[in-house]
Amino acid sequence: DSPLTGSWARSKTGKRYAYYHCHRCRTMSLQKEVLEERFLELLDRLTPTKKNLQALEETVLLVWRRRKQELDEERPLLEQRIAKLGEQKRRLVQAYVYDQAIDQETYRRELTKVSEDLTLVRVEHHGNEIDTFDVEAVLEFAEYVVLNARRLWEEFPLELRRRMQKVLFPEGLVWSNEAFRTPVTCLFFRDLERPEIELEKVVDRTGFEPRLAADYSRAPKSAVPTRTWVAPSSIAIS
Description:
Helices cover about 55% and strands about 10% of the residues. It is mainly alpha-helical. A hairpin with a 2-residue loop joins β4 and β5 (about 180). α2 runs antiparallel to α3 (about 105-125) and α2 runs antiparallel to α4. About 10% of the residues are buried.
């Protein structure tokens, strides 16, 4: 695969035309309008129905509320642990500095252990502070983007187009046989494509690797005469 490059060509009359072309293939050259129209058609095909969006929103909110309830129950326990460790630290200082009941080596060893435990609990407690996160607003914004992807891309300036393409197609696109191959889309689109959404997998996707919608690596070369990789930010000529 090789990336497409955007550039301008000038006719004999001096008129300028925008093209996308492949340096490696050399024979492949596409007019800007043609490739970008195919890109917009791809966005149209990926636009979900409001029914699917509503199902995803309800699922995400259900999982979110369950998780928030768990965090609300865990928070008082963490605060108790913080208070207990703080008291242990205070008593160590009392025993060493004022009562002189322990030696310096014991004091330092125990103080280090208590301080490390206290730091870990505080980090966990801080991670549970999610009250300010407005998940409904985030979902509303995501839905607005996917429902209006074509219009937004057409209206956006160059830099926002590139950022939008990177979000929607994190691994770029492959152009072959006058069309885009089935792309690896962002997580939001992938969940909408699934017939059934598993509740426990809607959140906590850290480390999730995108799966290909179709595996083209096994296709014979004869079946892919013109296969060109389009980077996430390459479809935009200013």
